[in-house]
């Protein structure tokens, strides 16, 4: 009886430890320094290396960073452009049930923020949501290789340093 209760105890520890580990979808593990774009549930993940990302058309935005009390210029790719790679319903497709779509942007340290898809779509929102790879003409260094910038936010609380993944979801 004692051997059986000992084995059950070990089994419980293993089971609870495996439940505590973060769930990860197959095929979404990021290569170090890459950005992973995924959509629930039907689209295969898109992995962008820094070289792949650098080859995409870039724009530049100047924003005020209230943490440093300085204007900073970032160069990168609009998040809406990246979300097209996972067939996000943008532009004329963003209506009805698609209005409950949102993204979860997560940094390599686990810091995550949520934005509605309407906040990202330039047809709905005047501000820029940018995935930057350069600040003031230089690589991001400790904040990179990618950083999410939300230009119209009064505080940079939704700016994600070391951006590692962007997941498109629908609340329905």
Report on this structure:
With 172 residues, the chain is of the alpha+beta class. It has a single domain (27-170), classed as Oxidoreductase, molybdopterin-binding domain (Sulfite Oxidase, Chain A, domain 2, Alpha-Beta Complex), CATH 3.90.420.10. The chain is built from four helices and ten strands, in the order αββαββαββαββββ. It has helices at residues 2-20, 50-54, 79-83, 117-120; strands at residues 35-39, 43-48, 59-65, 70-78, 101-107, 112-116, 129-135, 138-139, 147-150, 163-170. The protein has a five-stranded mixed sheet with strand order 2-1-10-5-6. The longest helix has 19 residues, at 2-20.
Key traits:
5-stranded mixed β-sheet; 5-stranded antiparallel β-sheet; 10 strands; 172 residues; 4 helices
Structure summarized in a few sentences:
With 172 residues, the chain is of the alpha+beta class. Helix content is 19%, strand content 35%. The chain has a 5-stranded mixed β-sheet with strand order 2-1-10-5-6. Strands 3, 4, 7, 8 and 9 form a 5-stranded antiparallel β-sheet that branches.
Set out the fold topology.
Layout lengths: L1 H19 L14 E5 L3 E6 L1 H5 L4 E7 L4 E9 H5 L17 E7 L4 E5 H4 L8 E7 L2 E2 L7 E4 L12 E8 L2
Parallel strand pairs: 1-10
Antiparallel strand pairs: 1-2, 3-4, 4-7, 5-6, 5-10, 7-8, 7-9
CATH architecture: Alpha-Beta Complex
- Number of strand segments: 10
Unreliable segments of 5+ consecutive residues = 6-30
How would you state the average pLDDT, rounded?
84
Discrete helix count: 4
Radius of gyration: 19 Å
CATH topology call: Sulfite Oxidase, Chain A, domain 2
Major sheet attributes: 5 strands, mixed
Using the alpha-carbon principal axes, give the shape. globular
Distance between the termini: 49 Å
């Amino acid at each position: 009886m004692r051997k059986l209760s000992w084995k059950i105890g070990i089994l419980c520890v293993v089971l609870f430890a495996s439940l505590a580990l973060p769930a990860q979808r197959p095929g979404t593990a990021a290569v170090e320094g890459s950005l992973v774009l995924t959509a629930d549930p039907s689209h295969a993940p898109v992995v962008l290396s820094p070289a792949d990302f650098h080859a995409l058309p870039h724009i530049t935005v100047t924003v005020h960073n209230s943490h440093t009390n300085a204007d900073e210029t970032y160069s990168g790719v609009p998040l809406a452009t990246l979300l097209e790679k996972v067939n996000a319903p943008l532009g004329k497709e963003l209506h009805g049930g698609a209005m409950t779509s949102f993204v979860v942007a997560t940094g390599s340290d686990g810091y995550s923020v949520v934005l509605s898809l309407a906040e990202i779509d330039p047809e709905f929102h005047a501000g820029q949501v940018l995935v930057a790879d350069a600040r003031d003409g230089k690589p991001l260094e400790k904040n990179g290789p990618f950083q999410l910038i939300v230009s119209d936010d009064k505080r940079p609380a939704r700016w994600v340093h070391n951006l590692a993944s962007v997941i498109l979801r629908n609340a329905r």
